[in-house]
């Protein structure tokens, strides 16, 4: 059984009196330790799908299983606990907490979500700081570092809880090419080291090229699936 | 909890100016309430002290029914020597009572041999009366500060109206309880200032002279006035006396005695109550001030930090922790405002004390304002502010904790 299985997933949005179908009968299965990307034009349903997989939203219809759990049946609190235990998130705008230092931002999920003991927290945070080459900036606040550095911190924060799945919505959209490649390489390295599944929604050809599996979405439907092994050139 | 506090404090420091303004508003409110309570408390204590220490005493004991007909100064509702013995025993059993005085009160005619007018007279034992109402000598504005047998202290207005001065001889005529009339000449030994202005008509004579005028074979006392060592024990002593004296019943099974605190005997109690009500309103204003300012700042904080709420919620922070984060911000603001307000309030009260501000009350001039605020009052005001701060943060905090991460993350 895959890490994620989706059966007949539908997602409708009510806009005034009009119902809009954002996702239309999606069926797929994602294996553990994948490096996978959802691509497609704006409005194709990439972010909506990522939100469903990330338990930030629920489908209108269908069955969605993540890490062996039927996430559709979870309530708000259960979804929050599930996210904290199984998932990491990387956002387009980095979304670091401005009042916490680099070190504290990475440490945050270990204290507030997983309640990890101090020594273990320290070990994991320092190790990740080293991996993302941010040890020297650990005491700086987000407004004192560059966009690329912020995204490296965000990746470290997503990985610190050792999740099975990291979801990244347009993680390189706000970065220059050099930094974007660095972030992609960093995430690939983390995937190789920890076996974490990375799922992206992106327009960015640099990420698309690095993905091992590419799902193409159009008008809320999966129109293509390519297994490139990470060497695709779309 | 430490980490939640750390985030709360840093978020407050992030918007320094806003935090400072809100804390200042709370601080000003706390200072205002503390100083108001201290000053009005001081004025109230002084005025109550003037009333009780000049005339009324802290408590009075009468025969049942006397106070209901006190305007008539009845001589038929008095305390006999046997009743006095019982009261004396009850008083001696209560160590909080410092002194007591017996009075025979009656109405009579006051004549200067040319004109006649009415007068209210208090037959007193001077030594006991001075211990019980120690400000009485200060009210004697002319003449001797003591009262001997054959002397009379008369109120100022009466002295002016009747053109009588110290050393003059006057006659007091009164009807005793059997209905017969008797008179006795007195020497005016002093002129009395009224407690609440020059309108009073109470004069003082020696209790033995009162007995002679009223042709009493044995002493029948109208009232017993009590003074306490500590005014704060008033209610306890009252209850203790009531417990003891209410057991004394007459043949019809009704209580023989009645006990009243000064509050039931003086219309000034209503003024004291008004001061308390004003203080209550000032406290309500403080609560409203804290409630509105904290709620406003927390609503702003939630609105501005919507994406942050979305982020921490997305990464798995439980709603309870998000709620705590915002409540702790309100709590910290409240504690900061209350603490600084307490400190400034105490400094202002200290400055008022060393400034020796005086004021007048009726004919009493130069009464020294001595504002004082107790630790219990400071704690009560501070705790109120802190509790209201938490209450004001609850609604915005609850809103933040209930927010769907997807909606919060979409917020621009």
Describe the structure.
The complex is a heterodimer of chains A (234) and B (412). Chain A is of the alpha/beta class and 234 residues long. Chain A has helices at residues 46-53, 76-86, 102-113, 118-131, 147-159, 177-194, 205-210; strands spanning 4-15, 18-30, 35-39, 61-66, 69-70, 87-90, 165-169, 197-202, 213-218, 221-227. Chain A has a single domain (4-227), classed as P-loop containing nucleotide triphosphate hydrolases (Rossmann fold). In chain A, the strands form two sheets. In chain A, strands 6-7-8-3-9-10 form a six-stranded mixed beta sheet, with helices on both faces. In chain A, strands 2-1-4-5 form a four-stranded antiparallel beta sheet, covered by helices on one side. In chain A, a hairpin with a 2-residue loop joins strand 9 (213-218) and strand 10 (221-227). Chain A is globular, with a radius of gyration of 17 Å. Helices cover 54% and strands 20% of the residues of chain B. The longest helix of chain B has 41 residues, at 16-56. Chain B is of the alpha+beta class and 412 residues long. Classes of the chains: A alpha/beta (234), B alpha+beta (412). The A-B interface holds A 51, 54, 56-57, 76-77, 80-85, 87-89, 91, 93, 95, 97-100, 108-109, 111-114, 157-158, 161 and B 3, 7, 10-11, 13-14, 307-308, 310-319, 321, 404-406, 409.
């Amino acid at each position: 059984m895959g890490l994620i299985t989706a059966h007949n997933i539908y997602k409708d949005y009510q806009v005034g009196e009009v119902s809009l179908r954002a996702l239309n009968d999606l069926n797929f299965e994602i294996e553990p330790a994948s490096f996978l990307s959802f691509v497609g034009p704006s409005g194709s349903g990439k972010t909506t799908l990522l939100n469903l997989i990330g338990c930030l939203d629920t489908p209108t219809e269908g069955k969605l299983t993540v890490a062996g759990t039927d996430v559709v049946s979870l309530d708000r609190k259960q979804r929050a606990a599930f996210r904290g235990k199984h998932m990491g998130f990387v956002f387009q705008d980095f979304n670091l907490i401005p009042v916490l230092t680099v070190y504290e931002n990475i440490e945050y999920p270990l204290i507030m979500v997983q309640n990890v003991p101090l020594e273990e927290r320290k070990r994991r945070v320092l190790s990740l700081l080293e991996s993302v080459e941010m040890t020297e900036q650990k005491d700086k606040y987000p407004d004192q570092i560059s966009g690329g550095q912020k995204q490296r911190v965000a990746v470290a924060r997503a990985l610190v809880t050792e999740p099975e799945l990291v979801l990244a919505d347009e993680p390189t959209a706000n970065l220059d090419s050099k930094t974007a490649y660095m972030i992609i390489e960093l995430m690939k390295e983390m995937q190789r080291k920890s076996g974490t599944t990375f799922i992206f929604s992106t327009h960015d050809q640099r990420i698309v090229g690095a993905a091992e599996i590419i799902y193409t979405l159009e008008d809320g439907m999966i129109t293509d699936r390519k297994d490139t092994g990470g060497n695709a050139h779309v | 909890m430490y980490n939640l506090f750390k985030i709360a404090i840093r978020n407050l420091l992030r918007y320094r100016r806003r935090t400072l303004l809100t804390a200042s508003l709370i601080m000003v409110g706390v200072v205002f309430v503390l100083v108001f309570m201290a000053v009005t408390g001081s004025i109230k204590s002084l005025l109550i002290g003037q009333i009780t220490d000049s005339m009324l005493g802290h408590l009075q004991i009468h025969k049942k029914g006397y106070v209901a007909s006190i305007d008539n100064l009845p001589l038929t509702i008095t305390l006999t020597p046997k009743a006095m013995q019982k009261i004396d025993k009850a008083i001696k059993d209560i160590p909080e009572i410092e002194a007591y005085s017996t009075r025979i009160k009656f109405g009579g005619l006051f004549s200067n041999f040319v004109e006649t007018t009415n007068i209210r007279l208090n037959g007193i034992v001077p030594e006991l009366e001075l211990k019980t109402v120690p400000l009485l000598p200060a009210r004697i504005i002319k003449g001797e500060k003591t009262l001997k047998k054959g002397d009379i202290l008369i109120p100022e207005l009466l002295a002016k109206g009747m053109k009588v001065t110290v050393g003059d001889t006057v006659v007091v005529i009164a009807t005793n309880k059997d209905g017969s009339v008797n008179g006795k000449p007195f020497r005016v030994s002093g002129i009395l200032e009224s407690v609440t202005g020059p309108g009073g008509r109470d004069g003082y004579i020696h209790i033995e002279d009162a007995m002679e005028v009223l042709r009493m074979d044995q002493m029948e006392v109208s009232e017993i006035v009590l003074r306490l060592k500590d005014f704060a024990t008033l209610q306890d002593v009252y209850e203790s006396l009531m417990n003891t004296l209410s057991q004394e019943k007459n043949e019809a099974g009704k209580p023989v005695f009645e006990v009243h605190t000064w509050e039931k005997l003086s219309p000034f109690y209503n003024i004291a109550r008004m001061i308390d009500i004003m203080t209550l309103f000032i406290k309500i204003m403080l609560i409203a001030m804290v409630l509105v300012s904290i709620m406003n700042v927390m609503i702003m904080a939630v609105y501005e930090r919507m994406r942050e709420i979305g982020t921490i919620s997305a990464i798995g922070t439980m709603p309870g922790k998000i709620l705590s984060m915002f409540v702790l911000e309100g709590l910290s603001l409240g504690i900061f405002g209350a603490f600084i307000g307490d400190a400034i309030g105490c400094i202002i009260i200290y400055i008022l004390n060393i400034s020796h501000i005086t004021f007048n009350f009726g004919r009493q001039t130069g009464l020294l304002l001595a504002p004082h605020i107790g630790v219990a009052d400071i704690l009560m005001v501070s705790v109120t502010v802190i509790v209201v701060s938490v209450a004001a943060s609850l609604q915005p905090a609850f809103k933040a904790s209930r927010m769907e991460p997807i909606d919060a993350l979409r917020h621009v």
